[in-house]
Amino acid sequence: MGSDLTGRYVSLLAPLRKRFLEGDVDPVGVNDTSAGIGMKYIAIDAMGGDFGPSVVVEGVALAYTQLQQSSGNCVRFVFFGDEDAINAQLEKYPNLLSASSVVHTDVIVTNEMKPIDALRHKEDSNLGMALHSVASGRTHAVVSAANTGAYVTLAKVILETLPGIDRPAIPAVMPNRNGMSVVLDLGANLECSPERLVQFALMGEVLARALLKKSSPTVGLLNVGSEEMKGNAIVQTTGQMLHSIDKITKEDASLDRFNFRGFVEGNDIFGGAADVIVTDGFSGNIALKAIEGVILFLFDLIRESGKKSLLHKLLALLMLPLLKNVKQTIDPRLYNGAVFLGLNKIAVKSHGSADPFSFAKAVCVAVNMAQSNFSDEIERRLQLVTKIQ
């Protein structure tokens, strides 16, 4: 292990994997108090997504630079996957190299791998070992751009869900007129009972407090109309349950207020009607993909229109500062990084097609969450469900 002589990165051979998973090996120095109080170690699946190590490592390098500027030297990274491919990329970023370790895995979870096949390799794959490192406390959070089905399945089995949670939810942070909002679920749960939607609402509210720094975030339930009589039986029952929780927290001063504002519509996602918008994964995923598609279509339309004539080119140049400002607000890459809500530990999902800039955002989300008592807050908030049963 010649690379260890430089203290720059560590490679674990196959015979050491079991010891690493059981906590007998400390390859990244998590238990080294000399690293300083508050040091966070982030597990990175280097092989996930459409582009693998080339984009992942560059994205982590960007995130590391941003984090050093904002909060100092308080984070280290552990990359899981093909050692040679990862090290070839790390050599390009000396600053990141000094803060990184590498754990080699022979088995790679690909975009095409089915969840059941990923489960068979939960002990020796890149994604499985990254998740195990978080479960055992060797790292504090994991980031991956792996396919959603495999990632959710492995995360649920390895990290396990909090008491009272059936299945983790995937949220996203989106811009709106008033700032930003949390929207969930975006694909992990295609069909949802009222009880599960209530869980989403409570977890989304905690996420809004942590990420958006909202002291009393408002919660809305996505429906085909804002009127109380609209919607199917599931949405109606969920609305009644959320109104009951709102009433309980309003009457009990010892509880943080759960501020349920009722039903909201699709146009309210950008309208800023609520800080948290709750829906099932089927509707949420369609809404997310439609929004991203519209944004990309508008950018392409503006770009092509600017090429039609000299006048259009001149107008485009005059509008360039305005367009850049708009892009900086609605660019989907700015909001990459979805925390799987409802797990005992922190797992962050990046878009599979993320570029380095976008992947860096997901890494920053993981660090932010690792620095909070996020899971404890969710577990405490979920106790409200028992008050309406």
Relevant terms:
389 residues, alpha/beta, Isopropylmalate Dehydrogenase, 2 domains, 5-stranded mixed sheet, 14 helices, disordered N terminus
Task: Reconstruct the topology from this structure.
Blueprint lengths: L16 H6 L17 E6 L7 H19 L3 E7 L1 H8 L3 H4 L2 E5 L10 H6 L5 H10 L5 E4 L3 H12 L11 E6 L2 E6 L9 H18 L6 E5 L10 H19 L7 E6 L3 H4 L4 E3 L2 H25 L4 H21 L7 E2 L6 E4 L6 H15 L3 H8 L8
Parallel strand pairs: 1-2, 1-4, 2-3, 4-11, 6-9, 7-8, 7-9
Antiparallel strand pairs: 5-6, 10-11
Helix pairs in contact: 2-3, 2-13, 6-7, 8-9, 8-14, 11-12
DSSP helical segment count: 14
C-alpha-based Rg, rounded: 22 Å
Structurally, how many domains make up the residues?
Answer: 2
- CATH class group of the largest domain: Alpha Beta
What does the overall shape look like? globular
Low-confidence stretches: 1-37
What does this structure look like?
- This protein is an alpha/beta fold and 389 residues long.
- The protein has two domains: 200 residues, Rossmann fold (3-Layer(aba) Sandwich); 161 residues, Isopropylmalate Dehydrogenase.
- Helices cover 45% and strands 14% of the residues.
- The protein contains 14 helices and eleven strands.
- Strands 3-2-1-4-11-10 form a six-stranded mixed beta sheet, sandwiched between helices.
- Helix 2 crosses helix 3, helix 8 packs across helix 9 and helix 8 crosses helix 14.
- The longest helix is centred in the last third of the chain and has 25 residues.
- The chain is globular.
- The termini are far apart.
- The relative contact order is 0.14.
